[in-house]
Amino acid sequence: MKKTSARYARGRKKLFEIHGKRGMDAIDSLGDAAPDLARIVYEWIYGDIYVRPGLDMKSRQLATLSALVVMGNVRPQLKAHIRGALNVGWTRKQIVEVVMQLAIYAGFPAALNALVVAREVFKEGAPGRISGPHGNAVKSRVGGRKRVRI
């Protein structure tokens, strides 16, 4: 399948919506060693699965975060999807609550490790996160609706 298929283009667009340039660069960097894997990520994961109509993007990110927290050994992907969750409208507080809920099922070590990763993302001022100078909530308008991010 050629690189410029509709699935490939659709997948690149969806990945960019969630992860921005940082995500695109990460997948594009696979091209040297594993171009087929990069193509599969764009076409199948983001071009077929992430665009399905059954769930909104916030729900998809919740499912993804939950799976990654439970796996417990996927720090780079967890970091990327925490950023993605912030980009699609999850708040810091909601992400922490999800991880706390998962401590019941994934265990404390997985939850604690996930919270360490989340703190790192929160400290770096991940794209999509809007906060005041002291980390307080700031109102923003995204997708035509008002929301408060913490």
Summarize the structure in words.
The protein is mainly α and 150 residues long. It folds into 2 domains: 1-52, no CATH class; 56-150, AhpD-like, CATH 1.20.1290.10. It is built from 6 helices and 2 strands, in the order H-H-H-H-H-H-E-E. It has helices at residues 6-28, 35-49, 57-71, 75-87, 92-106, 108-123; strands at residues 138-142, 145-149. It has a two-stranded antiparallel ribbon. Strand 1 (138-142) and strand 2 form a beta hairpin.
At a glance:
Helices cover 65% and strands 7% of the residues.
By CATH, the superfamily of the largest domain comes out as AhpD-like
Ends: how far apart?
43 Å
Q: Tell me, rounded to a whole number, the average pLDDT.
A: 85
User: Helical element count?
Assistant: 6
Assign an overall shape: globular
| Biggest sheet character | 2 strands, antiparallel
Q: How many strands in all?
A: 2
Count of structural domains: 2
State the CATH class of the largest domain.
Mainly Alpha
Structure classification:
mainly alpha
Helix content: 55-70%
Assembly type: single chain
Shape-level CATH architecture of the largest domain: Up-down Bundle
Beta-sheet strand percentage?
A: 5-15%
